From TrEMBL:
It is found in: Golgi apparatus membrane. Its main location: Golgi. It is a single-pass type II membrane protein. This is 2-phosphoxylose phosphatase 1. Interacts with B3GAT3; the interaction increases the 2-phosphoxylose phosphatase activity of PXYLP1 during completion of linkage region formation in a B3GAT3-mediated manner. GO terms for molecular function: phosphatase activity. It comes from Rhinopithecus roxellana (Golden snub-nosed monkey). One of its GO terms (biological process) is chondroitin sulfate proteoglycan biosynthetic process. The gene is PXYLP1. Keywords: Glycoprotein, Golgi apparatus, Hydrolase, Membrane, Signal, Signal-anchor, Transmembrane, Transmembrane helix. It catalyses: 3-O-[beta-D-GlcA-(1->3)-beta-D-Gal-(1->3)-beta-D-Gal-(1->4)-beta-D-2-O-P-Xyl]-L-seryl-[protein] + H2O = 3-O-(beta-D-GlcA-(1->3)-beta-D-Gal-(1->3)-beta-D-Gal-(1->4)-beta-D-Xyl)-L-seryl-[protein] + phosphate. GO terms for cellular component: Golgi membrane. Belongs to the histidine acid phosphatase family. Responsible for the 2-O-dephosphorylation of xylose in the glycosaminoglycan-protein linkage region of proteoglycans thereby regulating the amount of mature glycosaminoglycan (GAG) chains. Sulfated glycosaminoglycans (GAGs), including heparan sulfate and chondroitin sulfate, are synthesized on the so-called common GAG-protein linkage region (GlcUAbeta1-3Galbeta1-3Galbeta1-4Xylbeta1-O-Ser) of core proteins, which is formed by the stepwise addition of monosaccharide residues by the respective specific glycosyltransferases.
Amino acid sequence: MDVLTALLLLVHLIPVSTAKNGVSSKSRKRIMPDPVTEPPVTDPVYEALLYCNIPSVAERSMEGHAPHHFKLVSVHVFIRHGDRYPLYVIPKTKRPEIDCTLVANRKPYHPKLEAFISHMSKGSGASFESPLNSLPLYPNHPLCEMGELTQTGVVQHLQNGQLLRDIYLKKHKLLPNDWSADQLYLETTGKSRTLQSGLALLYGFLPDFDWKKIYFRHQPSALFCSGSCYCPVRNQYLEKEQRRQYLLRLKNSQLEKTYGEMAKIVDVPTKQLRAANPIDSMLCHLCHNVSFPCTRNGCVDMEHFKVIKTHQIEDERERREKKLYLGYSLLGAHPILNQTIGRMQRATEGRKEELFALYSAHDVTLSPVLSALGLSEARFPRFAARLIFELWQDREKPNEHSVRILYNGVDVTFHTSFCQDHHKRSPKPMCPFENLVRFVKRDMFVALGGSSTNYYDACHREGF
């Protein structure tokens, strides 16, 4: 047993027992704080391991649960890419050695990994929207390149896809066996890690799919705002939020001391180390169980990591309180939410295209959507996080439709701002679809204050 594993077992972070139903006794998929089972003070290493989302036991999930007289009409899936190599390196240290080729019998293992590799190698002629057609379909470097998806990242999304297949295809028959290309809507940013994550999920969902039926659209913006990206007020919220982050960091003397110690170890100015965003690289070491780097001046260690991660957690807490990020999120998430309800509305009219939509995205995509929906307590999006919108029809009243929102398999519908009061007002077991429509078309602007009633006015209002 290596030192890191021993440390984690010591603080009860790696589950060592399994409940009768096969689910680990310390669930890794919980997203809302649980006062009974979680450490009373947020443990930075515990939070980091939740973020890693190391594939282990199969998850239980609440996707696809509804009263028997409800019929599933459409599903809209937002994912964060899976585990990746860091985007930054700690200056003057050796890069963590992680192999980004896919090896079927290496951990983490997935029974479909070998077939996935084979299927991807047949897709070299796939026609995707430019510039996606120039990207590799799966990771393939013996030493990972910066930001490249790892085998862990592929396995995470093969698992996601298989889980959604069991629920939405086998149980609910969302797509017919002879599904057509226009019944899928697939969109990704122009990074190899998001395209490859989308393909891994899709392969788990539709094994051995026909390449001719698969078309990924390219989304240039991480906010998935398509033609509605120009929004000056959103950018002002973001600038104020970044200023808040900067001031909080200045107040944290322990953080400054830690950066100073680490800068001495790697022999660079403190400012340069901070700019290199060491937490990104350190998380990679932690998730892949690779020792933190050492130099002749000493070693970066777990105490350094804990200080930086604890500050991150404190920053998230203050971010919720100050509400600047909420303003950014309401404007940042509006275009993609508006597009999603448009698809849902077409489905309520009986249209049969785009029944399954997949957006392969980033943490900076999911975070604003979660915040805009009022899910402020949700954890920072882990690797391979999934946020799902389900649209249901009441068979007994075919004109009535309902929505469910799920985050990492947890039903968070009644935590959202548009449906948290639903039970007080209605005996209906599901959240009415019109609640979500009203929220996107009107209430998102009301929440911003001011008199704006549409996206353009809210983005251009004076005197903010």
